[in-house]
Amino acid sequence: MSNREAMLKKLSAAQFAVWEMHLYLDTHPWDLAMVEKHGRAMHKYKALKREFEETFCGLTPETAQGVEWLKGPWPWENEECDC
Amino acid sequence: MADYAVRRNQYYPQQRHAGAKDSCSMQFITPLPTDFAVAMMYVPMQTDTSMFDEMKALECGTLFTVLNKPFAGRCCK
Q1: Touching check for A9 and chain B: CB below 8 Å?
Q2: Pick from B8, B45, B49: which is nearest to A34 by CB?
């Protein structure tokens, strides 16, 4: 796994954790300990996203110029893809 | 945790759980309402918030250990 892929996976995991806590808080809005954990997880996710974007390229419309995804590789151009 | 009861009543004023009136802690929230009705379906509230580390969570499809339900069935060829 390249450094780029490793960082992207770490970022995905951080984002997933934020979403899971977000979903939990939908049904447990009174759990202030989780509100705090969610805040910390969000901070970590944003830091990782910033790090990735500064190293490689923008990931979302707020940070990408709108042509980043045209540079490739497209999913079917990845050699590791076995689909 | 002072505004625990305020938040709780704000979001779920009608929902009564055992000990919820005079407690300020998650441990008094029961998974099911104490005044349940017969013939109705209930989904138990999650009370355990133990978590996997993030990478393991991504793999399991859930952050919470209590919600990890690996597929235990098998193909019936």
Answers
A1: yes
A2: B49
Q: What SS3 class is residue B5?
A: helix
Distance CA B65, CA B68 (A): 5
Whether the ω angle into residue A73 lies within 30 degrees of 0, i.e. cis, is yes
Shortest distance between the Cα of B36 and any Cα of chain A, in A, equals 19
Nearest to B25 by CA among A81, A33, A66, A62: A33
B3–chain A Cβ distance below 8 A for any pair = yes
Q: Is B64 helix (H, G, I), strand (E, B) or coil?
A: strand
Taking the model in full, what pTM does it have? 0.72
**pLDDT, tens digit, for every residue of B8-57?**
555 554 454 444 444 444 445 678 888 888 999 998 999 999 999 999 99
What the block records as the tokens of A19 is: 């979403």
Interface test with B, best of A10, A23, A27, A28 (most B CBs within 10 A): A28
- Each domain of chain A, given as residue ranges in start order, spans 3-77
In the structure encoding, which two tokens stand for residue A13, read together? 């995991």
Cα-flanking dihedrals φ and ψ of residue A21, to 5°? -65, -35
